[in-house]
Structures are given as structure tokens and as C-alpha cells.
Amino acid sequence: MWDGALFGTGMARQSAMAYWADLLHEPVSIEDRGRMSLKAVDRGHAETESLETWKLKSKQKEMAIEFMQALRSSREVAVRDRGTGGAFGKRVLPFPGFFRRPIAKLFLENFVHDTAAYFFRPKMREAIQQRLRDVLPTDGKPITLIAHSQGSVVAYEVLSSLARTSNVVVDTLVTIGSPLGIQEVQDFLQSGASLQVPSCVKRWYNFADPLDVVAFDKTLGDEYSPLGFITDHVMFNDKTRINADFDPHSAVGYLAHPRVRTVVHDSVRFDTRSHFVVARDVAQSMASPSRQSVLIEARDISAEPDRRTTTRGSSGSPEVQTSSQRIAHIVSEVKAVVGDENAAEAKIDPLERYVAAQLTPSEITVLASKHGEIGIHTIWKSSAKRKLITRSAKTIHVDAARQSYEARGHNITWAVLDTGINTKHPHFRTHNTIIEVWDCRRHGAPQRLATDRDVEGHGTHVSGIIAGEQGGNVGHVGIAPMAKLVVYKVLDDEGTGEDAWIIKALDHIAQSNRGASEIKIHGVNLSLGGSFDATVFGCGHSPICRELRHLWRSGVVVCTAAGNEGQTPLMTDDGSIDVNTSMSIGDPANLEDSIVVGSVHAEKPRLYGVSSFSSRGPTLDGRIKPDVVAPGERITSCHAAFTSARDAYSEQSGTSMAAPHVSGLIAAFLSVRREYIGRPDEVKALLKGTCTDIGRDVYHQGAGLPNLMKMLMEA
Questions:
Q1: d(C-alpha 251, C-alpha 388), whole Å
Q2: pLDDT tens readout for residues 69-95
Q3: Which of 11-15, 358-362, 475-479, 613-617 has the lowest mean pLDDT?
Q4: Residue 676 to residue 409: CA distance in whole angstroms
Q5: Contact 409/448 with Cβ under 8 angstroms?
Q6: What pLDDT does residue 570 have?
Q7: How far is it, in rounded angstroms, from Cα 418 to Cα 495?
Q8: Measured in whole angstroms, how far is the alpha carbon of residue 482 from the centre of its chain?
Q9: At 173, which helix (H) or strand (E)?
Q10: What mean pLDDT is reported for the chain?
Q11: Where are the beta strands (DSSP E) in 459-498?
């Protein structure tokens, strides 16, 4: 688990473990072995060695509560040794010198049992230290040593003793959640009151979370001589703090933090980004013992399902596997790690290039350590995605194209990935618009959805913008009224979903097209998105982006909403105000192989310009996004919860409404210029080349406002 948090993968022989919890406790399970406290890294290689496993979770909480109560009843006292001038740490217990040691001993024996056993049982102390000595190289080869909690006490004492008698060289010492600053701990150190940095240590970094009660004194640099040698960092585990069971003393929480990772990566002098197996956001979430949704990516799997690759099986002999066989092998390995008793909770679900599952930290750790033999490339987080929210037809010149070219979307099929659809809405019954509805939230292959309910209503509204029309001459007409729709429910009734559900729908679309003599589904609309973390994957290269790229290159047009993060609140002396922000394009809107749509006013785009809420470019890697803008403010479309003709339509705003305008426009275009079917790059170039410039910044408006008449005339 430590390797996963630090490097995103197990380091195998590059890692050595000094494990001593078995000296104090009964043998522990793999779940508990994840909470270790010492790690050494050989410079040039990464190696993990752990020292001390915290007790089971219930005991851990009990101890923390007792410790916190003791802290609350005490007062902080900073003192100085008058003889040496050296600074001593903060006291946990408010007692003077000759009283403090016996009372501290009693306190430790009653509340911190492992520490008491280490300090007050000489044979145990020696046995624990020997575990570390056994794995430390004494040939002068520099290492990086990482010590957590009580492990930092053991590491300090061992290094202090070895510095005088061996060739141990610690290029970098990293302590996390360390109690070495607490005076009651310092009282019992073998080095006594000298508090000297071990001479074999070249650099020392100390990290402490403000809520970590074990690291009661957050700084060591003002206590250990030479003063100022140790670099102290008080750091917040911002992302792991969102976990319900977050433990501020968790080793994994510390190790997954980018500041800790940076120090360790710099010290071992190699770039781990090129080969990590566990993505950083997954590693950060491993501070909580609860299951998390992940996508396990298979190694070296092509977009072609019958592509053959060669791997080695458990016997070491070559095995030729198809892509589907590789996925099946990963599924069987995941099931073996999870166990039959936990299979239902794990929700293991094979996709085309991924295996979706909900795994515990220990299960993720085991899979990462065996990634080579299993055939795993990367374990990604199945990130959350959410919704992004007939007068507008004139704005993009669709009405004129209908009159002149009969551009109504006939014989074109579009996929809508959203919250579902109310199939009984009269808007879709005029032309029998809805072909199929699929539910991608369940285990296994997508299931046909017969219900006419769209509780959230977002998908129904989006679908009504693309296609369909109300019977009679009343004006509620989709952009491509004759187009057909295949709807995939990838968002739940609250409007949220995850990457695995979306990828399942994309796989189904790809399979439908591969199984036909010609393209069956010509385009896909995604009025959804989520945040993007550039430290986890390259911009536009998340798992969902990679799957969309496969779809695009197979001939399917991809239209995506830019997002509604164009404004952020800013506190001023006059209160909170909203300011526009650049570089607010989310995921998967940062994908190059797609048409990303921002929002403008429905009737007066040149006057009012880009909508204030519309996300703006550039992308984090400097590309122009959005590609175009379309009407997205107060757009009238189908109301899923209608009860009569009077409330059959409603208004919504957002780039969610802008994207289906462009989806419908391209569907209408392809229905007339059918030679462009299967050529999304050329469609995108023509779309952008015929846009109307509305005079705004290119990173706000992209190429401008689409014009279907110009597209048809220039094609």
C-alpha cells in the first residue's frame, strides 16, 4: 500500500521491508499490514520497508480518542535546557522534570501500548531495532528512509547508533506523523537529551498534519542539532479529508500527498510518472478503508477486439491472448483477490478495455503488486460525472437549411448519454424518434430500459433539442427533427454517474457499429462532465477521453459540453462576487478528438456574447477550447415530468443545452451530405471553418457560432 501511495505501483525487489508488528501482536491480515510505519528507498530505485502496523481500526480509534482527551486536559509548555541551549519539544503532560518521567511512563503504558512496549522492554526494543538493521545496506550505497509514527522513533535511534559504526548512508530521511517533537518521547530516547541529527543523514524532511495528535509538536527543526537542519512542513491532506473514515495520522494519507511524493521522487532521482500503476487520486483515497470505484486498465489492448497479444502465464510460458481473454483473466484475478464472500460488494464488471470494480485499499495493493503477471496497466479512479445544464434554431441557421436543403436528420442516428428519457413524451412520438433506451448503471452488459421515467429530466430535455417535434404547427421542433436517438442512462436520478458507466455505453456503441455493414450510430452527445486533475493523467488522456478517442477514430462524431465552470466566487470587502475564470475546461471536454461546445445567448449572441457560466479555455496543456459556441441560455425543450400539453416543455440553461444544438446540426448536415459519414475530422474542420465570429476571445468562443447553411453550401 505504501508503494501504491508513493509510486503508484509495487516496487518488487527494489523494496525491502523491516516489519516488526508480529513481535507485539498476533499475525495480522493484509488489510492491517497496509498501516505500516517505516520505509526505505534506495536512490535510483524505489524500495518500501515498513515498520509497525497500527492495531485494528476499532482499537486505533479508541487509542486516538483517549490520547485526544489527554491532550485536551493538558497545557502546552515549551522549555529549554539551560545547559545546552537546545530546544525541547512540547509537553503532552503538564508536569515538571522529576515528576514528568514516571507519569509519562504510566501514561504510555495505559494509552499507547506499542510505544510503551518499545521503550520499557529492553529485549523488545532491541528485537524491533534489529529488524531495521537487517535490511539497511552498509556498503555506503545511499538510500532514502521514510518513517511513520513510532517508526520514526525506531529509525532515529537505529541511525544514531549505526552512524558511529557502519557505512550506512541516508541521503534523505523523511518522517511523517512523527512524535519525535514531544518531550515525553524525547525523555526516553536512547540518545538522551542531546537530540543530535544522526551524522549519516544528509537531508531530513518532516511532515505533520495539523489534526494529527501523534505529531503533537509539528516541528523538529528547532529541537534537533544542528538547529535548522530539518525541513519541517505542516501540510493538509485536502483530498483525503473528504473520506468519511479519514485518519489524519494515516501513513497512506501522508504518502499520497504531492509534497511528500515530490520529496521522495526527487531523492530517488527517477521519474515515476512513466510507469505508475495506481493513479494518485486512487492512492489518496486509500487512506480510507472503504471501497472505492476504480477502472482497471488492461495492458497493451488495442481498439480491435480480435487483436492478439503475447503474455506470460503463472507458469512462465508464453500465452497468446485476445483482448477479451485478457479482460477475462483480469476479472478472474480480481475475483480471487476479493474472495467469494465479498464479490457482491466488489461489483466486478468487465468492459472492453477495462474492468470496473469497487475495491478496498488492501485489494488494490495486492493487484498492483501483481500487475505484471495479471496484465494490468493502470488502476484509475472511476471519476464522478454530472449533468451540465425553438427560437435558437435561427441563431445557427438551421431553419433556413430545413427550407433550402430539407436538412432534417433523416436516416441519421445519434446516441445520448444522460439521465435517460421519457419515451412517452409526445415530442418523440411524432417521428418515432427513440430506437432504444439502455441502462448502463447495472452490473454486466447494458440492459434495455422499458420505463418511461426520467426522474431528473436532464436527458429528456437534451434529447428534445437534438431531435423530434411536437405534432402540429406549434414551433417546438428539434434541430434535426427526423433523426433517431439511442439513449443510454449513464447518470442516476440525481444527475451523477461515474466513468465506468459512460465507458460501458461507449463500448456498446462501438460494438453496435462493428457488428453492422455500415455505421449505425453516427454521433454521440455528452452533456456531462467532471473535474480534471493534471497530476493524475495528461490533459485529454483520462480513461473516458481515451475511449472517446477510439470512438471518434472509428468514425463517430463526439459532441461534448464545455462545462459550466466559467465563474468562481471571490470574497471582497463588499461580499462575494462572481469572476470569470480561464482554464476552466473540464473532463472530457479537454479531449482534442471531439467537438466541445460553449454557450451563448439564444437570440442575441453578438450583443451578449459568451454566457457567463460557460467554461473557458485554454486547456491546461494550452489548446483552444471550446471549439464552437451555441445557444445555451433559457432553452425550451421537453419537460420529462409533463402532465399535459400545457407543461410539456420547460426552459433550462447551460452548456448541456448548447452541445445538443451542435449534435442536432451535424445530424442534419450528415442527412444531406452523406459522404461525410464516418469522417469526423473533416466534419469538425468544415464546422469550424464556416462559423460566424461573434467578436469574443478565441478561448471563450472558439471558432464562433456554427452556421448550417454555410456548411451545406461549402461541403
A1: 37
A2: 444 443 333 333 333 333 444 544 444
A3: 11-15
A4: 14
A5: no
A6: 67
A7: 8
A8: 39
A9: strand 170-176
A10: 79
A11: 484-489, 496-498
CB 509 within 8 Å of CB 415: yes
Give all strands of the β-sheet with 384-387 in edge-to-edge order: 496-498, 384-387, 528-529
Closest to 225 measured CA to CA, from 197, 192, 193: 197
Q: CA–CA separation, 252 vs 31, rounded Å? A: 13
SS3 (DSSP) at 427: helix
Nearest to 153 by CA among 20, 287, 263, 46: 20
As a three-state string, the secondary structure of 67-107 is: HHHHHHCCCCCCCECCCCCCECCECCCCCCHHHHHHHHHHH
Helices (H), 147-244: 150-162, 183-186
Q: What angle do CA 409, 410, 411 make, to 5 degrees?
A: 115
pLDDT for the residue numbered 294: 92
| Domain extents in the chain | 15-269, 292-382, 385-692+702-714
Q: Are 294 and 498 in contact (CB under 8 A)?
A: no
Which pLDDT does position 2 carry in this prediction? Answer: 56
HEC readout, 96-139: CHHHHHHHHHHHHHHHCHHHHHHHHCHHHHHHHHHHHHHHCCCC
Q: In angstroms, how far is CA 214 from the centroid of its own chain?
A: 29
d(Cα 329, Cα 327) in Å, to the nearest integer?
5
- C-alpha 249/C-alpha 247 separation (Å) is 5
Quick check: 104 and 179 in contact, CB under 8 A? no
Please tell me whether the overall predicted TM-score, pTM, comes out greater than 0.90 for this model: no
User: Per the omega criterion (within 30 degrees of 0), is the bond before 198 cis?
Assistant: no
Residue 492, all three cell numbers: 442516476
Residues forming the active site: 418, 458, 656
pLDDT tens for 577-609 read 667 778 889 899 999 999 999 999 888 888 989
Tell me the pairing of strands 38-42 and 143-148: antiparallel
Residue with the three cell numbers 499520497: 256
pLDDT at 662 exceeding the cut of 80: yes
Return d(Cα 124, Cα 147) in angstroms, integer.
19
C-alpha cell at 169: 548512508
In degrees, to the nearest 5, what angle opens at C-alpha 469 toward C-alphas 465 and 471?
A: 155
Per residue in 212-254, pLDDT tens? 878 888 899 988 999 999 999 988 765 555 555 567 887 777 8
Domain formed by 385-692+702-714, architecture: 3-Layer(aba) Sandwich (3.40)
